[in-house]
Write a structure and sequence with these properties.
- This is tRNA (guanine-N(1)-)-methyltransferase.
- It catalyses: guanosine(37) in tRNA + S-adenosyl-L-methionine = N(1)-methylguanosine(37) in tRNA + S-adenosyl-L-homocysteine + H(+).
- Specifically methylates guanosine-37 in various tRNAs.
- 29% of the residues lie in helices and 15% in strands.
- The protein is α/β, with parallel strands linked by helices.
- The protein has two domains: 6-155, 3-Layer(aba) Sandwich (Alpha/beta knot); 170-228, Trp Operon Repressor, Chain A (Orthogonal Bundle), CATH 1.10.1270.20.
- The strands form two sheets. Strands 2-1-6-5-7 form a five-stranded parallel β-sheet. The protein has a two-stranded antiparallel ribbon with strand order 3-4.
- The termini are far apart.
Length: 241
């Protein structure tokens, strides 16, 4: 049987996995074989007697750089089939978006290289065709948490992972919009009620209300997203008053 969606992670700290990916939705799906996770130790590909994986940066400067030869050997040893994306978590990379997540989730699952220290030797990025992906404009101390974010976002979209198959359809970014506000019981909380429309039972009105809220939120909080979808005129929102 061919395995389902699979993430292969190259890291100096394989003991960090599955970590948070081993609980809740992702963890249950992992245990039941809906996806597979392989965390491989880059250090296993070191060749000298100290098993060193890094060295000082050429040209000087602080910190250490992961060696191209060791990392290339680790990538080769993982024997990744050519149809799988080869990613490097990196603050210089293409910012991860929900549409990229949808694409990664639809494929066979990526190889993900996690950097540490000052980063990795540029030559292995080119020689092994690594696609750099960032989780945001800030610097983490290693690629592992970034890899977990990417994997988690993919796994929840895999068939059978989320309770209701529809729950991925409406949420933030699915149409270039942020999600509308959610409410549940109790009916009243510290003097605050639930918007009347949501308890009206009128599905069309509920849908229209949610749409208007999502648009208003996106317009005010994320003008970048709003502009990217070309805006939308003539929709009156209840949060605008
Ligand atoms: N000196 C590098 C940062 C190295 S941080 C620079 O200035 O670009 C060490 C490792 O953490 C990186 O190699 C990368 O794998 C990971 N990392 C840090 N921030 C990240 C981010 N925003 N997105 C994805 N990976 C990140």
């Amino acid at each position: 049987m061919t395995t389902a969606w699979r993430a292969t992670v190259l890291t100096l700290f394989p003991e960090m996995f599955p970590g948070p990916l081993g609980v809740s939705l992702a963890g249950k799906a992992l245990a039941s074989g809906l996806w597979a996770l392989e965390a491989r130790d880059i250090r296993d590909s070191a060749t000298d007697k100290h098993r060193s994986v890094d060295d000082t940066p050429a040209g000087g400067g602080p910190g250490m750089v992961l060696r191209a030869d060791v990392l290339a050997a680790a990538i080769d040893a993982a024997e990744i089939s050519p149809d799988r994306p080869r990613l490097l978590m990196s603050p210089r990379g293409r910012p991860l978006t929900q549409s990229m997540v949808v694409e990664f989730a639809a494929g066979p699952g990526p190889l993900i290289v996690c950097g540490r220290f000052e980063g990795i030797d540029q030559r292995v990025i080119e020689a092994r065709n690594l696609e750099e992906v960032s989780v945001g404009d800030y610097v983490l101390s290693g690629g592992e948490i970034a890899a977990m974010a990417l994997i988690d976002a993919c796994v929840r979209l895999l068939p059978g992972v989320m309770g209701k198959q529809t729950s991925g359809v409406d949420e933030s970014f699915s149409e270039g919009l942020l999600e509308y506000p959610q409410f549940t019981r109790p009916q009243e909380f510290e003097g605050r009620g639930i918007p009347e429309i949501l308890i009206s039972g009128d599905h069309a009105k509920v849908a229209a209300w949610r749409r208007a809220e999502a648009e208003a939120l996106t317009r005010t909080r994320r003008p970048d997203l709003w502009a990217a979808r070309g805006g939308q005129k003539g929709t009156k929102s209840t949060t605008d008053g």
